[in-house]
Amino acid sequence: MAGSGRRPEHRGPPELVRACGPARLGSALRARAAFLLTAFCRCSSTMRRRRGNIRRSTPSLRSSRVAEIQAQMAARAVELLALPEGRPCLLLDVGCGSGLSGEHISEKGHCWIGVDISRAMLDVAVEREVEGDLLLADMGNGIPFRPGTFDGCISISAVQWLCNADRKSHSPPKRLYQFFSTLYSALARGSRAVLQLYPENPEQLELITAQAMRAGFTGGMVVDYPNSAKAKKFFLCLFVGASGILPKGLGTECADGEEIHQAKFTNERIRFRNTKGKSVKKSRDWILEKKERRRRQGKEVRADTKYTGRKRRPQF
């Protein structure tokens, strides 16, 4: 789980934080480049010229890295949708931003409609001439489309914003339920919704999942690279109508195909053991181990029965 100190949703409402962030990144980079170019012309020192080049290149490197990660998560989300091959589908991109995720959808031959609360981000998407249609709306107020409109839905790093109350009238559980209930209605039966998110803590993850199940969805959480601190990604994979098979997360198998040893739920009953790995004293396992040691020592031991190690009733 990501730490709460650097989370963008804690800095303010999404329409303000996102407007001051990547949406204005292009104009900010151009202004900074112009400033550095002027300083470069005025400087005569070689060292200053090198510093200017480094400072000028750093923001573009960061923005390109963010765009690369965004494209990778969008590709993974579309993969988890398991769309039929050879048939174009209409997808919904919740929190589309500047249209980076929509570009991957267009490359796959599908049509899409993007929804975002930030007008500045949508303006950037218009400047980039994305192929999808764009809609300015707050997903916490619901998805404003007719029932059965979309063949699938993806969302990259947007759902966790609904867990914060930016206004006095905002209630995170109600806004989450409004979002999931209207999304369930807008999706066609048999389709999927894949929502990538960064939960702040287990309680927030439980809140999001509970409201999705309450709205009628089935499914669960797909975690890619669960043993990596940096590469771990959470994808809430939801099914509309009949429940499907939950996909496996990436990085859960070794190179030779064997699964990584992790805790699993089984119906097998396992006896309690102490911190040293030994059976608890006077328990059935402890008695059977002791009788087996005596047999190896050649001593006479009674046969094991179903009554061995069973507690006796207290005497009057």
Describe the structure.
With 316 residues, this protein is α/β, with parallel strands linked by helices. It has a domain at 63-265: Vaccinia Virus protein VP39 (Rossmann fold). Helices cover 38% and strands 15% of the residues. It contains 8 helices and 7 strands; from the N terminus they run αααβαβαββαβαββα. A 7-stranded mixed sheet has the order 3-2-1-4-5-7-6, with helices on both faces. β6 (218-224) and β7 (233-239) form a beta hairpin. α2 (25-42) packs antiparallel against α3 (46-81). It starts with 13 loop residues before the first helix and ends in a 20-residue tail after the last helix. The model is unreliable at 22-61 and 261-266 (pLDDT under 50). GO terms for molecular function: rRNA (guanine) methyltransferase activity. Keywords: Cytoplasm, Methyltransferase, Nucleus, S-adenosyl-L-methionine, Transferase. This is 18S rRNA (guanine-N(7))-methyltransferase.
Write the layout of secondary structure elements.
Blueprint: H1 14-20, H2 25-42, H3 46-81, E1 90-94, H4 100-107, E2 111-116, H5 119-127, E3 133-136, E4 150-156, H6 172-186, E5 187-197, H7 202-214, E6 218-224, E7 233-239, H8 284-296
Helix pairs in contact: 2-3, 3-4, 6-7
Region (Disordered): 276-316
InterPro entries: Bud23-like, Bud23_C, Methyltransf_25, SAM-dependent_MTases_sf
Pfam families: Methyltransf_25 (PF13649), WBS_methylT (PF12589)
